[in-house]
Design brief:
heterotetramer; A: 83 residues; Ubiquitin-like (UB roll); B: 162 residues; alpha+beta; 4-stranded mixed sheet; 4-stranded antiparallel sheet; 5 helices
Chain lengths: 83, 162, 162, 83
């Protein structure tokens, strides 16, 4: 499963993308965020305020309770500021 | 074009500048086009404080999401066409960032569809702006505004776009 | 320009075509312009039924009334400029009839001011349209639409413009 | 006092403008319309449906009950169809 990070989440994590293989107990986007936060200080810094982080699975907006099963690409990013 | 024809929908995400007049002209053709609305979003210097902006985006998802909302606009209003172009990369103050063009037989539909598209772009399209100070150094990431969420909220957008 | 400066207001009533891009460019200058909206009203052939329109106007009053409402728009919304150009005389199908351009720091004001100006133009500016049939003969005078009165009514226009 | 006629009112009246000198009893725009209707068939045809006719005094929209005293230029026209 491929993870993408954008904007200040990318900067805090220190990379733009990575391939991961989370344990089976990680079922939802929220589970994934919790698991990522346990991987080190940089992830705790990036995901410390869950309510600000947005996510997309395979390029479609999702919520924290969305299951990640079957996802090829999961992206995390701050609230959007385009336009 | 007549109402039975498919509206022309064109969405582009690009680094290059765009030509507002040329895009508007594309939607002005057709015997039943009576109203063309353009919206151009321009990079502000904020009174000289900024050199410009750096715009990051999510390639692929940006095009998908804008296309989705353009199609939704075409379902909600009888428009003959909608064009949306959003730039990314380094944008100097005074340069254009985003363009929306809509066309319809009547002005109400063209105005509403253009505003709908812009409100949606601001809050849902995966772009992130960072300020570049006048001395060229990187400033902070721009924070999302509650006012933009309010503007998007009036269209019942979540139901529509998901 | 900053908000303290007077907005640029330019109203023209003319037989000649206008250049949308050039007018939009005039309002795009200035370090705090973040949003430019253009509305172009185009003469429809109505599916080939019409050659175009003949537009009669009341010289002097037309400019006065449009200027008045442009100034009202500038009082209601924080716009940095508003341009309105309305043509008269013989207008072929496919040609532009009317142009409104508005500029502001933010998109909401630019959209609202442009729509306000157009709604007002339709119901209050002294212009009258007559159809010209495809064979070149003069058709009937266009009748005012209740929908236009409704659109203008939502702005509390009578209080504002009188 | 100068009168101006526009669009189909101009066509029905048969002229675009004229100078008039109405009697003193003609005090309002409505009085003026009534007086004009008495001037002949073409005026009756143009002003027969008062509710459709709009008026301006010195290039400002007015109502039927607006006094005409001091007016230099009074215009009559159908509902506007610009834009």
């Amino acid at each position: 499963m491929k993870l993408l990070y954008f904007a200040w989440i990318r900067e805090r994590v220190g990379q733009a993308e990575e391939d991961i293989d989370p344990p089976a107990a990680v079922r939802t986007v929220g589970d994934l965020v919790a698991w990522l936060r346990g991987r080190g200080e940089e992830f705790e810094y990036a995901f410390g305020n869950e309510t600000v982080v947005r996510a997309a699975i395979d390029r479609t907006h999702v919520q924290l309770d969305t299951p990640i099963e079957g996802a090829r690409e999961i992206a995390f990013f701050p609230p959007m500021t385009g336009g | 074009m007549t109402m039975d024809e498919q509206p022309l929908i064109d969405v582009r995400v690009q680094a290059e500048p765009f030509d507002v007049a040329a895009e508007a002209k594309r939607l002005s053709a057709g015997s039943d086009v009576g109203a063309v609305v353009t919206f151009t979003g321009i990079c502000r210097s904020d009174g000289g404080r900024l050199n410009g902006l750096e715009l990051e985006h999510y390639p692929g998802m940006a095009e998908n999401e804008i296309t989705r909302v353009a199609e939704e606009a075409a379902r909600r209003w009888p428009i003959s066409g909608a064009i949306a172009i959003h730039r990314y990369g380094t944008i100097a103050a005074g340069e254009d960032i985003v363009l929306v063009v809509t066309a319809s037989a009547h002005r109400g539909a063209a105005f509403a569809a253009a505003e709908f598209l812009m409100d949606w772009l601001k809050t849902r399209a995966p772009f992130w702006k960072r300020e570049i100070f006048a001395d060229g150094t990187a400033g902070p990431w721009v924070e999302a505004k509650a006012a933009d969420d309010d503007a998007a909220g009036r269209w019942n957008l979540d139901k529509a776009a998901e």
